[in-house]
Design brief:
Elements: E1 2-9, E2 17-24, E3 30-35, E4 46-57, E5 59-64, H1 80-92, H2 96-112, E6 115-122, H3 126-134, E7 138-144, H4 152-166, E8 174-180, H5 188-201, E9 206-209, H6 213-221, H7 225-232, H8 244-250, E10 259-262, H9 268-277, E11 280-283, H10 285-290, H11 298-303, E12 307-310, H12 323-329, H13 334-341, H14 343-348, E13 366-369, E14 379-384, E15 387-391
Length: about 400
């Protein structure tokens, strides 16, 4: 067993506890949360003391691209469509061992920041492999691309092969999903095929959606830089006459539990469509700002009852994997920031019964930090299922 004592314990699902402690069983689950004098120390229990720090649930990063960690600050293309094209070029020039090192560096960086669960979208599978090897927690959405309708079958063959390779790695801690990337990289037939495949195989889905004005131009008007680039490849583009959100609703892609990433270009009608579909949202405010996309309607999402978590996106979009900075960018501080980064993030990923708050019976995913925002915090300890994955030097 393990007992962690801190000057404050913030369970999130209950009021903060001064001079509190958490007791963790040998199975990695919490068996006691409360004031320090009320939590026993059974014989043989390892005791960790943090007299000047705060014990919180582990943070949940609802959108990452950790396989791209090695490409921080490597992409300086000023326009979003050109930036996306440059991402593809940089990935094509990356060796397999570089992706693997990037995945491990990204995971360990998350742990150093108190993050105990991630939602990764990527095409290489290395993040899922590395999470399984290191004993991490996360859901990995295997990306699929194919803007040319004539290549739908080929894209599905590649996706099913990748899922077959990765599925043996799935466990209670490491989950597998699929991600038809975005409207500018996925044809309508491929969207339908992936949605049907995900339903048949019981795989969760994540999509980049309504991120940029250029995406809206492509879907609604059949114009703009994405449309021009696709037509230059000989791909026929239609004006759909609707928003990207409405487009994916029509294609049957959005369903209960679908993780919609960004959703900046979402009007009130789209908010209602997202609520009706039962989706959740990964809100990435710093990435949205860095690319000049605007500000997602976070207040409208929350008022409508749409579940929202925060994500950092990749270090190609922002310089680091700092979730506290995302909370600050979303104008959240203190307990509100902590709740969004923990329990609400867990809800967005469908993991709220296991993580996101310090409650008896839940997994002991937790972090010990020196402060809550707006103060800058250092992470002293990060644990996943009761096992330390990061400890600051004494």
């Amino acid at each position: 067993m393990l007992r962690v004592h801190a000057s404050w314990v913030h369970p999130v699902a209950a009021p903060p506890i001064p001079d509190g402690a958490v007791l963790v069983g040998d199975d990695g689950r919490i068996i006691g949360v409360g004031p320090h004098p009320h939590i026993p120390t059974p014989p043989g229990t390892e005791a960790l003391e943090f007299p000047d720090a705060i014990l919180v649930p582990g943070l949940v990063n609802c959108h990452t691209h950790l396989e791209l960690t090695h490409l921080a600050r490597a992409n300086h293309a000023p326009e979003f469509a050109k930036w996306i094209r440059r991402v593809r070029e940089l990935k094509e020039a990356t060796l397999p061992e570089e992706f693997r090192r990037a995945a491990e560096d990204g995971i360990r960086d998350c742990w150093r920041r108190g993050v105990t669960a991630i939602a990764e979208t990527g095409s290489t599978g290395v993040v899922m492999e590395t999470l399984a090897e290191l004993g991490g927690r996360g859901i990995v959405y295997q990306e699929v691309f194919g803007p040319d309708p004539a290549k739908c079958v080929q894209s599905m063959v590649e996706l099913t092969a990748a899922v077959a390779r990765l599925r043996p790695l799935a466990s209670d801690r490491v989950r597998l999903g699929v991600s038809p990337h975005a409207p500018y990289t996925v044809s309508a037939p491929l969207y339908r095929a992936v949605a049907e495949y995900a339903r048949r195989e019981d795989l969760p889905v994540a999509v980049h959606l309504a991120e940029s004005r250029e995406e809206t131009e492509l879907v609604r008007d059949g114009s703009g830089p994405f449309a021009e680039a696709l037509r230059a490849r000989g791909i026929t583009i239609e004006a759909r006459g609707c928003s990207p959100v409405q487009y994916l609703v029509q294609l049957g892609v959005l369903a209960s539990g679908t993780l919609c990433i960004h959703c900046v270009q979402a009007g009130q009608d789209d908010v209602l469509r997202l609520r009706a579909a039962g989706v959740t949202i990964a809100h990435c405010p710093r990435s949205n700002h860095a690319h000049g996309h605007g500000t997602a309607p976070l207040a409208a999402f929350r008022a409508a009852g749409v579940r929202v978590g925060l994500g950092t996106d990749s270090v190609m979009s922002v310089a680091d994997l700092d979730l506290w900075a995302e909370a600050e960018a979303a104008d959240l501080t203190g307990e509100a920031a902590l709740r969004m980064l923990t329990l609400e993030g867990a809800c967005a990923l469908g993991w709220e019964s296991e993580i996101g708050s310090l409650e008896v019976g839940k997994q002991a995913d937790l972090a010990v930090v020196t402060a809550l925002p707006p103060d800058r915090a250092a992470t002293l300890l990060t644990m996943i299922a009761g096992r330390p994955v990061h400890q600051a030097p004494a």
